[in-house]
Amino acid sequence: MEKWEKYFFQPKSINDILGNAAVFIDTNVLLSAYQWREVTVNEVISVMKILNEEGRLKIPLQVIKEFARNRPKEIVKRMNELEEAISKLQKPNALTQKVPMLEGLEIYEKVKELQDNYEEGLKNYKKGLMELRDELKRLFYEDHILSQLQEIFKTAVFNPPSIKSEDELIKDAEKRFKNQQPPGYKDSSKEENSAGDYIIWANMLELEQNVIFVSNEKKPDWVYTDKHKNTISVRRELTEEFFECSSGHTFGYLSPKELITLLKPSVSEEVKKDLDSSTVTPGYGDPIVRVPIRLPIENKISAVLCEIDPLGLVEAGSDSSEYDSEALVIAKYIKRKQGQFTFGQLVEAVQDVFKLYYNQELKETTCYRIIARILTILEREDTQLLYN
Fold first, then answer.
1. 26 vs 383, residue with greater confidence
2. Which end of the chain has fewer CB within 10 Å, C or N?
3. Does position 97 have pLDDT exceeding 80, yes or no?
């Protein structure tokens, strides 16, 4: 093979290589199992089993290590979300505190009965949430997802004897990062596991066959995307490097949804929607938050504003809604931006709201406290903190 041939190589389409390619699974796909519904997990695992039986599924040791390290964090995130929901449940004040002068009226007694039923339902709901939290704790000792993946890992683990040691690969990654050579250079600033993507790539380069990489992320140092963040193709540098190292083969890149729908066209819309919600498109630099449009976040933002109370409007001990209007405007901004905005843009939006309603600019430190709390809430809502 001539050195110049890689520059003119035209890779095969995904459809052309899907039937024979080795399929590598990224860590984020495995971790998504702790966000998906049971039906989705079952569909993904069934496809992984089929690929494994065909000898085409490859799970690099690096992916297994990352999965083991981050799996407990995913479970804790889910537990924190339940704790947050439990902490927000409030028993209503007795009617005698609200409208004591109406006690004895028929409507009063009817509402009191409704309140009693509500309190009983609230109690049972809280008990149910606590039981769910306890079930999550059990995953640290009895994890049915982990057990299924473990069976797959036994034969799908990929750790070629010819590959360099981890220390050597990290040194190679650092050299590539200096030249902004994909993949992985966008992670060079990470404090931990900055070489993870490159190590996975180095594993793929050990094979002389077509390879498809399945990932939830559409990183710009892996793929080209259009303005709608749809993947167009893998980076040309990767196409050329893989062609050269694999003796002329093609490297492809798919999301979990794309892989599942290609291999199982009859999969339900419920599963497709679930798979779609886990796909993220990170950039790098200024923090960005991706917020599902369905989230009723205005109530949570209002609670943050009332707790911080930047203008001293909330009376002590009151169940105040003083900042509902401001919270609604901020929530609408987040939704209008389709959940994608920088930290600075959100600061600006919050400042503008308070200028609009009170002709007053918040102190910078107060504004940052508000934004930090909002971002924390959004992250708990199973969103992704991204970078651009």
1. 26
2. N
3. no
Scan for tokens 């199982």, then name that residue: 264
| Contact of 157 with 64, CB cutoff 8 Å | yes
**251-254/231-234 β-pairing:** unpaired
- Tokens coding 384: 């992704």
Question: Residue for token digits 């927000």?
Answer: 88
Measured CA to CA, the distance from residue 235 to residue 213 in angstroms comes to 13
Q: Residue 337's pLDDT band (boundaries 50, 70, 90)?
A: confident
The one-letter amino acid code at 279 reads T
Helix (H) or strand (E) holding 124, with range, is helix 106-138
Using a 10 angstrom Cβ sphere, with 0-12 exposed, 13-18 middle and 19 or more buried, the burial of residue 271 is buried
- The mean pLDDT of 317-340, rounded to a whole number, is 74
- pTM value is 0.67
Q: How confident is the model at residue 230 (pLDDT cuts 50, 70, 90)?
A: confident
**One-letter amino acid for residue 275 of the chain:** L
pLDDT in tens, 343-373: 778 888 888 888 777 777 788 778 888 888 8
Mean pLDDT calculated for residue range 210-231: 86
**What is the separation, in whole angstroms, between the first and last Cα of the chain?**
39
For the cut 60, the answer to whether the pLDDT of residue 157 exceeds it is yes
**Cβ-defined contacts of 298-301 (< 8 Å, 24+):** 298/324, 298/327, 298/328, 298/330, 298/331, 298/332, 299/327, 300/377, 301/327, 301/330, 301/331, 301/374, 301/377
Q: Which of 233, 225, 176 is nearest to 199 (CA)?
A: 176
Distances (CA, A) of 199 to 156, 165, 387: 17, 10, 21
SS3 266: coil
Among 233, 237, 280, 236, which residue's Cα sits nearest to residue 253?
Answer: 233
Tell me the two tokens of residue 325. 């209007």
The number of beta carbons lying within 10 Å of the beta carbon of residue 294 is 9
> How far is the C-alpha of 245 from the C-alpha of 35, rounded, in Å?
36
Residue 27 in tokens:
């860590």
Residue 306 CB neighbours (<10 A): 18
Of 68, 81, 66, 332, whose CA–CA distance to 217 is shortest?
Answer: 66
Q: Give per-residue pLDDT as tens, 235-254.
A: 999 999 999 999 999 999 99
Q: Where are the alpha helices (DSSP H) in the chain?
A: 14-17, 27-31, 38-53, 61-88, 95-98, 106-138, 144-156, 166-178, 196-204, 236-245, 256-263, 269-277, 298-308, 324-336, 343-358, 364-380
